[in-house]
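Obj.: predict assembly geometry.
Materials: sequence records (below).
Method: joint structure prediction, all chains together.
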Amino acid sequence: EVQLVESGGVVVQSGGSLRLSCVGSGFNFDDYTMHWVRQAPGKGLEWVSLVTWDGGSTSYSDSVKGRFSISRDNSQNSLYLQMNNLKTEDTAFYYCAKDGVSLSESWSWGQGTLVTVSS
Amino acid sequence: NFMLTQPHSVSESPGKTVTISCTRSSGNIASNYVQWFQQRPGSSPTTVIYEDNQRPSGVPDRFSGSIDRSSNSASLTISGLETEDEADYYCQSFDSSITVFGGGTKVTVL
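Observations (raw structure tokens):
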């Protein structure tokens, strides 16, 4: 069974930094592109960032470019999101997701971790 | 970058059929696969359709997906509507390493 478990969400002050983690199990972690997707309370899903299977390519939404950095450690089946210069509008549930499209599989999602940025 | 536009909400009675559209603002809808995610209140999203029209195991065949090149849109159809189908539904696609989600459609079962 595919499992994705996020951690690291806390309350942080505006301008602060935070690192989120996501551990995957039940699949070959290093075969898949991985994403971070966020959802502000009561709002829709917003894509944040992706990293390819080998970490060789990353991409970011305009709203986080230059402030967030995605990385992965395939030896630890882990995905990370380093979040710097946090703003109140970054307050959201952050989900990691396994992108199976390149292998003709469906996306799988974690349960999410809540980041609250206070002013 | 492109946008995916969905209706804000749809509602229908149990046993009926609803169709949710997802219109791509630029670029060809058929150039990149479309996924559909269901999110029930208080839960993480789950996939109901991937690669335009494929259902993951465990998803009832009441759910189907399609692409319409003429309108540059994708659609999710839920037939035989059940109360458990009440949820938010999001379409998703990508282009040039950018992933885009639609704004979401709330499905209400009357």
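Conclusions so far: The radius of gyration of chain A is 14 Å.
To do: check interface contacts against the pulldown list.
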